[in-house]
Amino acid sequence: MFTLKRLLSTKVHFIVLQFIVYLFSNCQLLPSLSYYPNSKLKNYSLMKKIVSLSLLLGLLQWGAFAQMYQWAKNIGGTGAVQSNALYVDAVPNLYTIGVFSGTADFDPSAGVANMTSSGGNDIFITKFDANGNFIWAKSIGGTSTEEAYTITADATGNIYLSGIFTGTVDFDPSAATYNLTALGTDIFVLKLNNSGNFVWAQAMTGLGGGNSFAIAVDNAGNVYNTGYLWGIMDFDPGALVLNLSATLAYDNLFVQKLDASGNLVWAESMSGLGNSYGNAITIDNSGNVLVSGYFTGIVDFDPSLASANLSASSEDALALKLNSAGTLVWVKKLGGTSDERSSSIEVDAAGNVYAAGYFGGTADFDPSAATANLTSAGNTDIFTVKLSAAGNYVWAKRAGASGADAATSVYLDASNNVYTTGFYQATVDFDPSASVANLTSAGSNDAFVQELDNNGNFLWVRGVGGIGSDKANAIAIDGTPNLYITGTFQGTADFDPDASIANLTAVSSSDIFLLKLSNNILPVELTYFGAMVRDKSIALEWEIVSENNADRFEIERSTNGHNFEAIGKVKAVGNSSQPNRYAFWDNEIRQAIGYYYRLKQWDADGKFDYSPTCYVTLRKLAVQVYPNPSGGMITLHLPNPQYYKYTLINHLGQTMREGEFESNNEIKKHTMDLTLLPKGQYILHLTLHNTIINQPILLH
């Protein structure tokens, strides 16, 4: 492996990179060729070869690393409002759900989007763009009480939420009507499209009751939800009956699977002489169902005729894995001398499981015969735990002080870094190592967000709040990664976690907040990252606008976009207010369809962060462009429903066009008019989620 030295930015840097690529591809090693103050290329035939190579070069653009705080919004009204969950799609748009009473304005700008509840608590669903601009709000309600706790979406953008309702409720938020009537406190699952229009709703009714706390969708569009039931409930929302019965007067955890049309596939409950609750649910890449929550007493977690009994003298946290048919794979308990609850669960591409919540006293987070005890510092402490795909202990971390501290939500980024959010009191050290990272709340409760790496090592923590009670209820991340957090706050609270101030003042006794933070907090500013294929090698290049205390860049490569390996490193300048260019040459190309690359930038203090991923294909692209060469009108054939962002760059690296479009099962083509552009060679960069595809185009 040979690493090119740092290239300082000049007006001809684009050509200089191509020149170096040409020299190295012809085995002329010039290690001193690293600085080109005002280089001139005099050989015209060589120049033509160099420029022709630019057809294969793609630049991945992203915003410079900036301050953490991006924006904060609040929603309030005449009654109570509470945001329980959020979801971020690939665009990214932000969806939130929760409950409200009275009249609330769901447009946080100068505009007004009032909704008024029909009875007690009504359900709201909102959609905002990545800048926090209001798009739409919908309400679901009747004359009694309705609550929604969870939201998710499928690959085509349909939205799913679940919760409880009483009485008769119209689940169509439009002028049309779709009423469901509860026998008691019944469970619902609702599907809307990404414009908030009604698709279907299903109810699980019976002589008992229950609640649905979490919902998830698999790659085939099947819908899973979990919570608890008491008494007898019919979990087949169709004409048939599938009664599940809770044991005696206990609450029993359930898991239900519906197909994409809302028809029952299966439902199972966990019975015993104790209570059990499903608080969170997710699906792994193999279609297995992961549930976390808590239980007391003796509960059999095998829904078949076999048994898998666990016992707890107080509340113990649980992690449960079922296969796609609802058969038990394993169940684990995490508990100790006091109460433990898991409020959130995530799974990575390898099937490792991450859960977060709170615990008191001393709790053992190793579900095997071995021990991994954590002891709370006071009332309740925050825990984050990682288990393997087989349910074996990997690591567990805590944070807390003398007050009541809890994690409410956990989320993974593309690099499997672990983010938790929740609330804390007084002064809490969030670094689980011997080092200290204290936050001190301004009021009774403040909200926090913490990042650990995949090994449980502390990266950073931030807190927001004011003199009232401020709690974060949910977190989600886009591909940049930006962090989106929602919760509630009282009075006036500062939502800029750093030195600046971004105060919001609640309209009602407790308002909803929406907060966007950038995780680009390392002391570098990057402007682009690109890759090109040359014979059996790939050249990478990136530019840093400025550096402060930077140490090095590690280059990582993957064949699937999930499992990355380090393939080399480049030393950073360290401190510089001038643009610096870097490059790396990957000569170890094996048999593969393509490669994903990312940069891991380290600062001198041992902190690191990742760039977005750049994908280089080694075969014909699934996205086809024709005609190519073209006189100006080109058509893109898009085989899969996706949301695309595009950038068209000329041979000088200048952006000529940029925009976005979406394909679906009906519309699989997109036409672009490039007739006004000069003739020549271009690169069309198509970004899907956080992956870029480079497509050469020739206009003649």
Automatic annotation (TrEMBL):
It comes from the Bacteria. Keywords: Membrane, Transmembrane, Transmembrane helix. Residues 625-691 form the Secretion system C-terminal sorting domain. The keyword ATP-binding does not apply. The chain crosses the membrane at residues 12-30, 50-72. PANTHER family: CELL SURFACE GLYCOPROTEIN (S-LAYER PROTEIN)-LIKE PROTEIN, PHYTASE-LIKE DOMAIN-CONTAINING PROTEIN. This is Por secretion system C-terminal sorting domain-containing protein. It comes from Flexibacter flexilis DSM 6793. The lineage of its organism: Bacteria, Pseudomonadati, Bacteroidota, Cytophagia, Cytophagales.
